[in-house]
Amino acid sequence: MCWLTAKTVVISVPRWRSLSLLLRSPLHRRAFFSSPPLLRQGERIICIKEPKAFKGTTKSTRKLKELSNVLEDKEYSHVLWWKQRMQLCRKPSTVQLIKRLKYSNLLGLDVNLKNGSLKEGMLNWEILQFKSKFPREVLLCRVGDFYEAIGIDACILVEYAGLNPFGGLRSDSVPRAGCPVMNLRQTLDDLTCNGYSVCIVEEVQGPTQARSRKGRFISGHAHPGSPYVFGLVGVDHDLDFPEPMPVVGISRSAKGYCIISVLETMKTYSTDDELTEEALVTKLRTCQYHHLFLHTSLKHNSSGTCRWGEFGEGGLLWGECRARPFEWFEGNPVNELLSKVKELYGLEDKVTFRNITVVSENRPRPLHLGTATQIGVIRTEGIPCLLKVLLPSDCTGLPVLYIQDLLLNPPAYAIASTIQAICRLMSNVKCSIPEFSCISSGKLVKLLELREANHIEFCKIKCVLDEILQMYRNSELRETLKLLMDPTWVATGLKIDFEKLVSECEQASCRIGEMIFLEGERDQTISSYPHIPSEFFEDMESSWKGRIKRIHLEEAFIEVEKAAELLSVAVTEDFLPIISRIKASTTPFGGPKGEISYAREHESVWFKGKRFTPAVWAGTPGEVQIKQLRAAVDSKGRKVGEEWFTTAKVEDALTRYHEAGAKAKAKVLELLRTLSAELEAQINILVFSSTLLVIAKALFAHVSEGRRRKWVFPTLAPFLWLKDTESLDAADGMKITGLSPYWFDIAQGSAVQNTVDMRSLFLLTGPNGGGKSSLLRSICAASLLGICGLMIPAESALIPHFDSIMLHMKSYDSPSDGKSSFQIEMSEIRSIMTGATSRSLVLVDEICRGTETAKGTCIAGSIVETLDEIGCLGIVSTHLHGIFNLPLETKHTVHKAMATEYVDGLTKPTWKLVDGICKESLAFETAQKEGIPEAIIQRAEELYFSVYKKDALMERNDTKLEVCTSDIDVNGSNESCDPFSSISKRTFYPKVESTNRMELLRNEVESAVTILCQKKLIELYGKENTSELVEVNCVAIAAREQPPPSTIGSSSVYVMLRPDKKLYVGETDDLDGRIRAHRSKDGMHNVSFLYFLVPGKSLACQLETFLINQLPNQGFQLINLADGKHRNFGTSHFSLESVTSHR
Fold first, then answer.
1. Taking the domains of the chain in order of start, what are their residue ranges?
2. pTM to 2 decimal places
3. Which stretches make up the DNA mismatch repair proteins mutS family domain (predicted)?
4. Nearest alpha-carbon partner for 902 in 963, 971, 975, 945
5. Looking at the domain that runs over 245-357, which CATH code has it been given?
6. For helices 475-483 and 413-427, what crossing angle results, to 10°?
7. How far is 346 from 422, CA to CA, in rounded Å?
C-alpha cells in the first residue's frame, strides 16, 4: 500500500494563527478599497435581501408561505445519517436542542418555531441551498462578525466545539449557535478532530449600500486531515499541514481481503488485495481515515471464528470495525467507492481519480498486527519501539511515517535491494548533503489547486527543487538520486523519467525565482517619513511587499511611493505647524497637548490633541491649520473621539494611499494565483520531488543513526530451493552473527550478542528471564529490517527473501468479544499456520501456555509438526517440557536453549543461544526477585519436591549445558530491564544561503588551512614516513547543508565562517552535533563551515591549536584566540609563502 495515500499518525489538525485579521468584517474607512475575493469556477454568489423585523410579530400570527417538507429519497438518507449522529450526543444542552429538531429537511428546522422560516429569500433558505450541495458537512455561514449554524449543525457545534447556543435554551426558537470570526480556526479544529467535515460560507467583502443584498459563496471546506485554507495566499506565515486522511473501503473475494484508499485531496486511489484478516486490521489500526465503508461481500465471508451478529462471520475484523462508524456499500468495490467519495465531497461526476497502485511481484506480505505491535513498529506501551532506534531523535514527521510504512508493508525484493544500495552509497558520501526540505504532497496539491499558495510556500517549493538539482549536479550524489527514483515511484505511483525530472525541476525553480521575492533581496523597503509613525507604513505595506519581485509591480510601487510622499506632505503642512505651536507653549500644567498619531483600528494617521485651540485668534503661526481641523470619523461616519482630528487634505492623501496600496496588493495576489496555476500543470513533478526528498531524508537519517550504533548492512539473497534461483546467489537459511537486541546501543557495549544460524525450525527452551522473548524480538526486527533494505543490529548477516515474517507473543483475553486469552492465541496461531510457507519466518513465544498443561503440550507438539512439514524457518519457544516426551514426527526441527551457568551454587542465565534442551525454569528465583514472601517460596519448593522429585533430578542433569559467557558486560540486560535505550536529542534549525563575499572568504580560508596543515603534518610525520601522511581534504558545508553520515564517529577539525567574516576554529568527534550547536545561537543560523577528518582526537587537538595560532598571522580574524594559549603547539611563526594575506 502506498504510504503516501494510506498512512498517517496525525491525531489532530494543527492550530493556526487566528484568521481574525484575514476574515474580519471590513473596518476600513474606505470600504471600496477592498476587492471582493476571487471566485473559482463552479462557485456562484447567492444574494438575498435582509428580512425586516416587525415589532410585535408572534408565532401565532405569522402567516408565511413555507417550502414543502417532503424529502426526496436521496435527502432522506442524509437526514437519517444526521439523526444517527444526534443519538450519539450526550451533553445536556445538546439534548435539549435536539428535542426542537424536526427531521423534515436537511437542516432539521421546525418551521413552526421562531426563526425557523424557510421562505425563499430568507437567510435560512439560503443556508439550506448551500447545505443541499454538501449534505453531510456541518455548515458555518458568515453573518457579520460571526459564523453561524442552525438546526442540526448548531447541535454539533454545541456538542463538539464547546459553544453555547444563541438565546440560551429557550424552547420557542430553532437551535442556533456560532463562533466569532477570530475563533473560527479553533472551532474547525474541534469539529474535524471529532471526524466531521465543515463547509464554510463567506460573505462577499466590498461596499454595501442601504437595502442592498448581501452576497455569499462557499469559500472552502475543512476535513479531517485537510484544513481550511481560504485567504492564505495573502498572509505572511506558513501553515502546518497534516497528512490527508483517505476514505477507506473494505471488501472480500476468493483471494482474501481488499482495502481501497481514496484521497480526495490528491484525486488518487490505491488498492491492496489478497490480505489476511490480521494484515487488514493492522492497516486499519495504523491509518487515520475520514470515512469507512464496508462492502456487502463481508456479510458472507467464512474466514473468522466469531459471528458478526446479523451480518455474518469475520472475527477480528468485525471487532475492529464495530467500534467505529461505518456504512455498507455494494456493487463493484472500486467504482462504487469512488462514487461514494464524489457524493461525500460534492464532486462532479466528471472528476477522475488516478490509480496509483503499484503492482509488484515477489513482495512480502504486510505485517500482522501482533508482529507490528510486539516489535514496536506500532507504538505499544511496554514494548521496545523499533522506530525510535532507526532514526535520530530530531528526525520527525514525514520521514518517520515513510519508515513506519516501509516496515508495515515491506517492499518488493528488487526495491529492497535498491534501498540498501542507496543506504550503502549514503554511508560512504564524503561531501556535504542538502537539508532535504519536506513538504506534504497533500499540502502542495490543495494549495496550488485552490490558488492559495503564498510566497512562503513558493520559497519552500523552490528549496525542494533546488535540492533535487543540487544532488544532480554533485557527482557524488547523482547516483543516489538516480536510485531514489524507484522507491519514489512505489510511494507515489508516478513513473517519471530521470532527465525529465531534472529538466522540469530546473524550469519550475527558475520560474519561481523569476517571480518570487527571495530572501536576501533588498529592493522592497517599507516607506518611511519623519513625521508619520513607522507602524502605519509597516501595517499597510507589509501585507504585500516582500512577496513578488519589484520588476513585476513597478507601476504599483511608483504609485504607492507617490501616494506616501503626498501623505507625508499633507501631514507636514496641516499638522506640523500645530505641533510646533504646542511645543512653543510655556504652560507647565494643563496646557495644550497634541501629536501625530496612528489610529490602528481605523488605519489612519490623524492629529490627536486637546486644549490647543487659542482663546484669542491673533493670526499667530498654526492658527490657520487649527481652523482647518475637523473631527475624525470612522467608516460609518461616526465621530471617533473628542481628541482625534483630521483635515480634508490629509483625508484625500490617505484615500489615495489606501487606493494605491489596495491595487498593489490585488496585483500581488493575482500574480501569486497565476503562479499557482502555472505550477499546478507540473503538480506530478512537484509531488514526486517532495516525496523523493522525504525518502532521501529518512534514509540519510537512518544511515547516520545506524553508523552511530555500529549497525551493518546484511546480505540479501533468495532461497536456495527456489527453481529459478542460481546457487551462487542463493541462501539455504539465515545466519546472523553478533545479533544484539535492537533496543540496546551496541556502541555503548550494553548488550549480549548471539549468533543465529538457522536452516530449519528451532524448538527453544530456557529459564524465565533467560532471553527467549528478547531473542525472538531481535531476530524478528533484524529480519524485517533486512528485507526492507535497512541496517541491522549485528556484526554480519545473510537474510533470505522471506515472503512473510510472523511473530506471536503473549495474548490477552477480550471480554467484549467473549474470548479467553487461549482463544485469542489459537486465533492468531491459525492465521500464522494458514499463511506460512517454506519461505516464511515464524516466531512463536511460549506456545499454548493459556490452557491445561497436558492438552496444551499436545497442541503445541502438533503445531511444531505442522511447521516442520511446511519447511519454514523459525523458532517455537516453550516451557512445556513434556513436549520432548511426545512421539513427534519431525524431520528438520532442531533443539535450542538459552544457556545458564552455576555461580556460587546458584543458577543464573547467560542470555546466550546454545544447542540442547534447558528444563530449568528459575521460577522460584524469579518469584523471589520480584518480592514474593520467602515463606511462600519455601512452601512452593516443598510441594514441588514432594511431587516432582524424580523430574527435578532429571532436569538437573539435563541442564548441565556448556557455559557460554559474554565478553561484554551484560548487567541488567535480561527481559525485565527497561528496554528503551537513550537517544540524544538534537534540535533542528533553519539555514540560509551564503553570499558571494562569504564564498570568497571560504576559498581563502580553505587554501590557507590546507597548506598550513599539510606542511605541519609533513613536519610531524617526517620526510621518511610520507607514506603514512594524512592528506588534508577540506570539505565545505554551506548554509542549508549538513555533514554526511561518514563523519559520524570520526575526529575532525573545523572552521566556522561567521557572518562578520571572523573565524572560529574547533575540533570534535561529533561534527553534526557541533554544527547544530553553533547554528542554534542568535544570528548564526546561516553560517558555513569547512572541515577535514584526521585519525584520532589527539592529532585533531594539535591541529586545532596550530590553526588558532597560525591563521591570525595570515591576516584572518579569530574569535577564539584564547583557546590557542591552552597548548604551546604551533605558537612559533610558520611561514606560508603560497598563501596571500587576508585583509
1. 73-222, 245-357, 534-582+592-676, 715-722+730-930, 997-1125
2. 0.82
3. 840-856
4. 963
5. 3.30.420.110
6. 160
7. 43
